[in-house]
Design goal:
Layout (H helix, E strand, L loop, with lengths): L3 E7 L2 E7 L1 H11 L3 H26 L9 E7 L4 E3 L2 E3 L1 H12 L5 E5 L2 H9 L5 E5 L3 H11 L10 E6 L5 H36 L3 H4 L4 H8 L3 E6 L11 H28 L5 E3 L2 E3 L8 H29 L7 H26 L2 H12 L16 H6 L4 H14 L8 H28 L19
Parallel strand pairs: 3-6, 3-7, 8-9
Antiparallel strand pairs: 1-2, 4-5, 7-8, 10-11
């Protein structure tokens, strides 16, 4: 390789510089990425991938196996009846069988009155209700007596109300649980009713030989209960089978998350603390002397101004798409609060941790948030380690509030009150954390890029 010459103009004097092959080799070696530069991204991405797989595959693997504390209401209105001088109440027997038969660690079976059960269905506190009517025993007695008489007989009815507004997947789990439980109850009651009818026939004049149960009567008595599954307050059209609340939550969270990232990057670029790159072009301004605290306040201000604009855009597009929204103002106001809270907290994390804050925000709002949101799979059908995250994860709190506004008439007890105060709490924590971190750095002289915001410490201009 031949020597190459370069000329530099400095102070009006031309300096001749000759590069040797050894100098060029040194430059090439120094341009290579050191080993630690390879190890860092590989380790971080691998750990993030392991966390993603654990969270996302863990909560979808087997929801019914993971079932715990799944709330179901049981309403027994049966007043009983007197059969052959004996007081009988089949409703009580079914209630006892269901209470004993449903595993307490998986099902939270609540014995409620009809009004309280409807209230809990109306506010999304239970995923369904099993309702035994007041004349249940009386109708069973009529069925037993009529089984030996030709003619059409109406079977007694038990109603299973699902709650699709609390989640369509939860409603399907509710139906599968009650299908299995009621099939066992139907068989047990049928055996008891058949035994009672046969005993009565045997005690009648002429005995059992005189009057035999027909095959059709035996089949009827073996399964004497008619189970009717009906949705309580079906979802209106335009809700994507209830998924609209989940996706509205998702765009609110992503808007706040994206607002934090873009505001952080653009403000840093404008103030000279990060280069602005546009394809092959870049601009690197001289850093403006400003404290970390004032810079964070500026970013917070931009995030707060942006939040209502974004919330209004979401509401307007949802309206144009004919999405049913009965409480538009409440949705707009809460959407503004949610976007601002996520953005402010995200900016505080970035101000405190710098570049690692990108990973912290991703884990906090996305990796841990989606599986624990309960927007697609109810939180009671996820592994315990995911369900425990829902107590503080932002996305779950936002989903509760959005679902309450869209599907439960904005009732506070439907999750709106929890969503609001948890969002406000998250916002307060974000503000306190950001203020503490930036003030601590400023007081200790840990300035960004070493540029002091104090005139006495600033370097003199050349």
């Amino acid at each position: 390789m031949t020597n190459q010459s370069a000329s530099e103009a400095k102070g009006g004097v031309t300096v001749e510089q000759t590069n040797t092959p050894e100098d060029e080799d040194t430059v090439v070696r120094s341009a290579r990425l050191p080993l630690r530069g390879w190890i860092g991204p590989v380790v971080i991405v691998s750990l993030l991938a392991a966390l993603l797989a654990t969270m996302y595959l863990g909560y979808t693997a087997d929801p019914e196996k993971n079932l715990h504390d799944f709330p179901i209401a049981l309403v027994n209105q049966d007043v009983g009846d007197s059969l052959d001088g004996e007081a009988v109440n089949f409703g009580n027997e079914i209630t006892a069988a269901l209470t004993e038969g449903m595993p307490a660690d998986k099902i939270d079976l609540r014995l409620l009155g009809i009004n309280e059960a409807r209230q809990q269905l109306r506010t999304g506190q239970v995923y369904g209700a099993i309702v035994i009517p007041s004349d249940f025993t009386k109708r069973l007695a009529i069925l037993g007596a009529a089984s030996v008489v030709p003619g059409e007989i109406e079977r007694p009815l038990i109603t299973v109300n699902t709650n699709p507004r609390a989640g369509t997947y939860a409603a399907s789990i509710m139906q599968r649980i009650t299908d299995r439980a009621m099939a066992e109850v139907d068989t047990t009651v049928g055996a008891r009713l058949t035994e009672r009818v046969e005993s009565k026939l045997a005690a009648s004049p002429g005995g059992a030989a005189a009057t035999q149960l027909t095959g059709a009567a035996r089949l009827l008595l073996a399964q004497p209960i008619d189970i009717e599954v009906t949705p309580f307050r079906p979802l209106p059209a335009g809700t994507g089978q209830g998924l609209s609340a989940f996706f509205y939550t998702l765009i609110l969270l992503f808007a706040g998350f994206s607002s934090a990232l873009m505001t952080h990057s653009l403000v840093d670029s404008s103030l000279g603390y990060a280069p602005a790159e546009y394809g092959p072009w870049y601009r690197n301004s001289r850093p403006v002397p400003i404290s970390r605290w004032r810079m964070l306040l500026t970013k917070w201000g931009i995030a707060v101004v942006t939040a209502p604009v974004v919330s209004a855009i979401f509401l307007g597009i949802a309206t144009l798409l004919d999405m049913p929204i009965d409480h538009a103002l409440a949705l707009f106001l809460y959407g503004t609060l949610a976007v601002a809270a996520v953005a402010v907290t995200g900016l505080s994390v970035l101000a405190a941790f710098g570049t690692p804050g990108l990973v912290v925000n991703m884990v906090l709002f996305v990796v841990l948030g989606l599986p624990s949101s309960s927007g697609s799979i109810p939180i009671e059908a996820t592994p315990r380690y995911i369900a425990d995250l829902a107590a503080f994860e932002p996305m779950h709190q936002i989903y509760l509030a959005v679902r309450a506004i869209l599907f439960f008439d904005g009732h506070l007890e439907a999750g709106l009150s929890t969503g609001i105060w948890m969002t406000v709490l998250g916002l307060a924590i974000g503000l306190a954390f950001g203020a503490l971190a930036t003030h601590t750095y400023d007081l200790r002289g840990l300035y960004r890029l070493g540029v002091s915001h104090r005139p006495a410490e600033a370097a003199p201009a050349e």
